[in-house]
Amino acid sequence: MQPLLRASDINKRFGGLQALSNVSFSIAAGQIYGLIGPNGAGKTTLFNVITGMTPADAGTVMLDGRELGQLKPHAIAQAGIARTFQNIRLFANLTALENVMVGRHARTRAGLLQAIMRTSGQRAEEAEIEARAFELLRYVGIEARVNELARNLPYGDQRRLEIARALATEPKLLALDEPAAGMNPTETGELRTLLERIRSDGVTLFLIEHDMRLMMRLCDRVLVLDFGRAIAEGPPREVQQDPAVVAAYLGTPTP
Amino acid sequence: MMKLDLSARLPWIGIVLVALALAVLPFALAGIGTTWVRITNLALLFALLALGLNIVVGFAGLLDLGYIAFYAVGAYVYALLASPQFGLHLPFWAIIPLGALVACIFGVLLGAPTLKLRGDYLAIVTLGFGEIIRIFLNNLSQPVNITNGPQGISRIDSFRLGDFDFGKSEMLFGLNFSGPIKYYYLLLLVLIVIIVVNMRLQHSRIGRAWEAIREDEVAARAMGIDTTRMKLLAFAMGASFGGIAGGIFSSMQGFISPESFVLVESIMVLAMVVLGGMGNIWGVILGALLLSFVPELLRHTIEPLQRSLFGRSIVEPEVVRMLLFGLALVLMMLYRPAGLLPSAVRRRELARKSVEP
Fold first, then answer.
1. How many CB atoms lie within 10 A of CB B64?
2. Can you list the residues of chain A whose pLDDT is less than 70?
3. Domain count, chain B
4. CA distance A252 to chain B (A)
5. Helices (H), strands (E): how many in chain B?
6. Is the whole model's pTM more than 0.95, yes or no?
7. Which of B104, B195, B208, B235 to mutate to test the interface with A (most CBs of A within 10 A)?
8. In 10 A of CB B289, how many CB atoms?
9. In a structure prediction context, what are the per-residue pLDDT tens digits for chain B, which is 357 residues long?
């Protein structure tokens, strides 16, 4: 079966730093796919390449058999990859609801003239956008915060809001950059439930995370990056035992 | 039930009262002097300009210091096609949309190369653009005389619909409708249309996309918003409004020259937007009216006041105006940085603080 996402031989260099070298992997539909590695291994760079924010020097990314090539970030979002950011990037001065409503942009059509004339189609679409946005806030469990400004939400809720906003674009693949960062164990547990629910609702997940316990429980497969190279790939249990991975995290034992 | 009915009707009562007041206003002003009708017309014109700039600055968050250039483009398109300059006298309903279109094209011309710029850098480029347009208008009298250079273009046609001429007085329904009064109603109508367009845009998919770009461009892109297109759209919309205002200005004044479109005018329009409350339509209109009327009030009070007190004029009204203007801006930045009527976003933020314990 054709994988949902296939990345082949991705290379990216920043000046003298080879941030990614010949990274290849593929994600099957319905998986929760993890990306781990020490700090500076190139995880976020790989995310940026896949979401079109950083153009790769070489390599191809295919989503559902379609080459993403040099598509711009907005076109990639429209093609079906949504993401969240390591340092939360919400629209701080908009309400929670408005944030998610912005996420509907990619899946709605009303243009300038329809908005100015306020056609019946445009009004129906606006109502649909608002209803869907509210539904998504409920889905991630922050519907009580609907009219609060994003900047005033507690940290954990901001993470959830970012996920709701990304889901509003109806992604095939949801890429989450350290969703559990800064969360306490209870919040992390709740996040795990949410992510599993998102997967069971048909969205494939691709996530960077440092919380190993969470990753071992959640992921079907993980990819390990070290100094821009893929050093291991497979089910978490196997990867955990891999000598190269142990060495990357703990250093090589002196003989 | 009664109470509910009343509260549902209250806004309508308010609207009817305001409409009546606005309808009677020019005649009341004409009683004081036709000058005041003209001043009101200019204030309305500036409100149009400020609303156009508000789309670019307030909604999309793109700092534009050359906005007056689009006003100039609209004004010159009208002047060239409806004056003895080329002997052309096209009807206004054909030229005004054309002026809006040409201004819109200039908006895209300015927008396209500056898409990657933000904040200070964008401000500098737009400022330069504004100056380039003005200098062009100033120098396009040679080798072929197009704009008549610094002398400007005079005897520009007023709007005319059949026998109804906006430049001439006539008696209608037993009332004396002078030229400025006719323009007042026209401007009011255009202003209402532009307010409605602004409000609808703000609460639409496109308005949200602009706000998203203002808040965080990277995140906006990740949400599938084509930021390039949306920014160009903001520039184009703002420019078209400027072009419409310019065409009306041209016909109303009957004379234009590059001097009407200097940098200070751009800054004034921007000050109206900022003072009133960026992103809030009513705030922007309030800002425009204040900054248009207060200087005129000063002009008509400062000098007579000094004469009656000291027997001569000591401080020029212009000096007092700049002094008060500067003071007002400093006080605003200290006490109401979000403007006189902050946008809904800010208001909600304040409301939340007062609700929560």
1. 34
2. 253-255
3. 1
4. 39
5. 13, 6
6. no
7. B208
8. 18
9. 444 555 566 778 888 888 888 888 888 888 888 889 999 999 999 999 999 999 999 999 999 999 999 999 999 999 999 988 888 889 888 999 999 999 999 999 988 888 888 778 999 999 999 999 999 999 988 888 888 888 989 899 888 887 777 877 777 776 777 788 889 999 999 999 999 999 999 999 999 999 999 999 999 999 999 999 999 999 999 999 999 999 999 999 999 999 989 998 999 999 999 888 888 899 999 999 999 988 888 878 877 888 888 877 777 777 887 888 888 888 888 888 777 877 765 555 445 444 443
Angstroms from A197 CA to nearest CA on chain B = 22
Residue B52 domain-assigned?
yes
Are B43 and B289 contacting, i.e. CB atoms less than 8 angstroms apart?
yes
Chain A residues with CB-CB distance to B226 below 8 A: 72, 74-75
Chain A residues 7-66 with a CB less than 8 Å from chain B: 51, 53
**A93 vs B197, B215, B233: nearest CB:** B215
Residue B190 lies in a domain: yes
A106 touches chain B (CB under 8 A): yes
* ipTM confidence: 0.92
CA distance B17 to chain A (A): 27
In a domain, B303, yes or no: no
Which residue's structure tokens are 């004396």?
A: B176
C-alpha to C-alpha distances, B78 to A171, A211, B154, nearest whole angstrom: 49, 66, 12
Residue B355 maps to a domain? no
Whether cis (ω within 30° of 0) applies to the bond prior to B143 is: yes
Partner-chain residue, chosen from B209, B216, B346, that has the shortest CB–CB distance to A105: B209
CB contact (8 A) between residue B225 and residue A105: yes
Which of B215, B223, B346 minimises the CB distance to A92? B215
Contact yes or no for A112 and B201 at CB 8 A: yes
A156 contact partners, CB below 8 Å, separation of at least 6: A183, A187
Please identify which residue in the block is written with the tokens 């019946």. Answer: A120
Residue % of chain A over a pLDDT of 70: 98
Full residue range of the structural domain in which residue B42 is found: 22-262
- In whole numbers, what is the pLDDT of chain A averaged over residues? 93
Of B206, B212, B348, the CB nearest to A112: B206
Predicted pLDDT of residue B212: 95
Determine contact: A172 vs chain B, CB below 8 A. Answer: no
Chain B residue at shortest CA distance from A127: B204
Radius of gyration of chain B (CA): 22
Residue type, B106: F
At which residue do the structure tokens 């940026």 appear? Answer: A48
CA B275 – CA B267 distance, rounded (Å) = 12
What is the spatial distance between Cα B251 and Cα B165, in angstroms, rounded to a whole number? 11
Which of B206, B215, B224 is nearest residue A77 as measured by Cβ atoms?
B224
End-to-end CA distance of chain B: 33
Which residue segments constitute the domains of chain A, with CATH numbers given? 1-80+171-255 (3.40.50.300), 90-168 (no CATH)
Distance CA B67, CA B210 (A): 18
